[in-house]
From TrEMBL:
Pfam families: HicA_toxin. Keywords: Endonuclease, Hydrolase, Nuclease, RNA-binding, Stress response, Toxin-antitoxin system. GO terms for molecular function: endonuclease activity; hydrolase activity; mRNA binding. InterPro entries: HicA_mRNA_interferase, HicA_sf. The lineage of its organism: Archaea, Methanobacteriati, Methanobacteriota, Stenosarchaea group, Methanomicrobia. This is Addiction module toxin, HicA family. The keyword Lipid metabolism does not apply.
């Protein structure tokens, strides 16, 4: 049984699953330190940056902020998350 409903962001998600989800959305890691920096190259030649804390578990509220700042729609993230 899942601990989260499909319309809400997962809570306390393992960092590895979050990274894999963003990789499935086209992002790649460019730097790791206190934060993890990722970037996605878009078809129009622009790049979309993404930064998240390098914690073992990522909070749902943090995921919402990361997605909003990176222009990722809620449904798009949740679909990729379920497929990961």
């Amino acid at each position: 049984m899942q601990k989260w409903q499909c319309n809400e962001f997962p809570r306390d998600t393992p960092k590895r699953k979050v990274i894999k989800t963003f990789e499935n959305l086209g992002f790649r890691i460019v730097r790791m330190g206190e934060h993890i920096s990722m970037v996605r190259e878009n078809p129009d030649g622009t790049k979309t940056p993404l930064t998240m804390p390098n914690h073992e578990r990522i909070k749902g509220s943090t995921l919402r902020v990361i997605c909003r700042q990176s222009g990722i729609k809620r449904e798009e993230f949740l679909k990729a998350y379920e497929e990961t």
